[in-house]
Amino acid sequence: MRLTLPGHVVSRLGVGLAQGIALSLLYQAVQQKIWPATNGNVFALLVTVAFFVPTLVISGLGNLRPRTLIVWGAVATAICAGLAYYDILRDPVTLFGVPQMPRIVPTATMWFSLSAILFIVHTLTVAGDADRRVIATYPTHFDVSWKHGVQFVLAMCFVAVLWALLFLGGELFRLIRIEFFATLIRKQTFYIPVTALAFACALHVTDVRASIVQGTRTLLLVLLSWLLPLMALIAAGFVVALAFTGLAPLWGTRWAARILLIAAAALIFLINAAHQDGRVDDRTAAVLRYAKVLAAIAIVALTALAAIALYLRVAQYGWTPDRIIATACVVVAAFYAAGYIYAAARAGAAMKPLESTNVMTALVIVGVLLMLRSPVLDPARISVADQVHRLEAGIVTPDHFDFAFLRYRAGRFGPDELERLAARPEGPQAAAIAERANQARRANTPYETAHPLPPVSAEMRARNI
Fold first, then answer.
1. How far apart are alpha carbons 239 and 329 in whole angstroms?
2. How far is 193 from 337, CA to CA, in rounded Å?
3. What's the pLDDT score for residue 445?
4. Looking at residue 453, what is its pLDDT?
C-alpha cells in the first residue's frame, strides 16, 4: 500500500479547518434564521456535503492518486447531495408537539445509511487504487477496511479526550475567576472548527503511524475470534431446540425476524474476525476453523427463519417501513448465507471463497441502501400504497386502520393519501373511510387520530367555561 507522506499534514489540517468553518457558518445560519437555513432542501444538501466529503478527502490524501481522489470526491458529493435533497423532499416537515415545522436536517436513518455507503465505497476505492485494479485483492480490502474503522474509532476517542481536557482547563481558570477560557470553548465559532481540526489531526497521525492501527486491529480480532465457537454453539443449539419446541413460540413474538437477523449478523462478524485476511488460516486453531463451518450452517437456518417470520407478518398485516427495511436485511443476509455455505462446501474449514462473497455483498449493501433512501424503494411510499390498498380492498376495516401512520409516520405520501381518502366519493365503506381520514387530517396529535374527539357543542363549551 502507498505510504502517506508527512507533508500531507498541512493539506489535511487545512481541509479539516475549512470543514469546521463551513459547519460553523451553517450553524450560525440556523441560529440567525437566515439563508440557507430557511430552505430545507438547500441546507440539508450543504450540511451533508460539508460533513462527509472533507472527511473522505482527508482520508484519501496520500492514499489515493490525485485523479482518483478528484473523481471520488465528485461522486461522493453527488451521492451526499442527492440523498440529502430527497430525504427532505420525501418528508419536508417534522412534528414538535402540536405544530408542524419545516425540516432542514436529514433524518438519523439517512445519516446512518449514507455513512455506510460512503465507508464501503471509500474502502473499495482506496483498496482498488492501491492494487491498481478495479477490485483489489482480499488482503488489501481487509487491511484498508479495518484500518479505516480503527482510525475512526481512535479519532473519536482523541476528540473526546481533547474536549475533556479543554473543559478541565476551563474549570481550572474559573477557580481563579477567569471566565474567558470557559466561555470561549462554549462558543460554536470555536468548538466546531476545533473539533473538525482535531479529527483531521487524529486521522493523519493514525495514517502515518499505521503500526498503531494494525496492532490494535490484530489484538481486537484475536480476542473476538474466540467468541465464535460460543456463538456458533448457541445458534446451533437454538436451531436444534426448535425441533422440540416447534415454531409456534417463535411466531408468537413480534420481533422474531429482528432477533434472528441480529444473531446472523453477529455470526457473520465473528466468522470474519476468525478468518481475517485469509492468510492466517494455517495458524488458526482447529476449533476456530470448524466453528466457522458450524456458524455458516447456522446463518442459513437463521436467515431462512427470519424470512419466514417476515413473510407471515407481511401476509397478515401488510407492508410497513420497518418490514421493508427488515426485508432488505434478509436479502443481504441471504447473500452472506449462500456465499458462506458455498465456501464451507467448496473449501471445507478454510472457507476461502467467503472472501469474494464479502466483496460482492458489500456492493449489494451499497445498492440496497441507495434504493431504500431514494424513490426506487422508499419504505414510506411502498408502505402507504400497500396499506391504503388493503383498506380500499376491504382487507382491513376503517376502525382498525392506522390513520395515524398516514398522518405522522409516512412522510409526504401519507398526507397526500389522506386528502384523497377524505374526498373519496365511492367504493366499499367510502363514507366511513372519508370520515376517519378527515378526523386524522384535523388531529393535532397521534392520540387524537386513534381516539378522535367528539364534535364540540354549545353545551360542552358552556360547561367547560
1. 20
2. 44
3. 73
4. 55
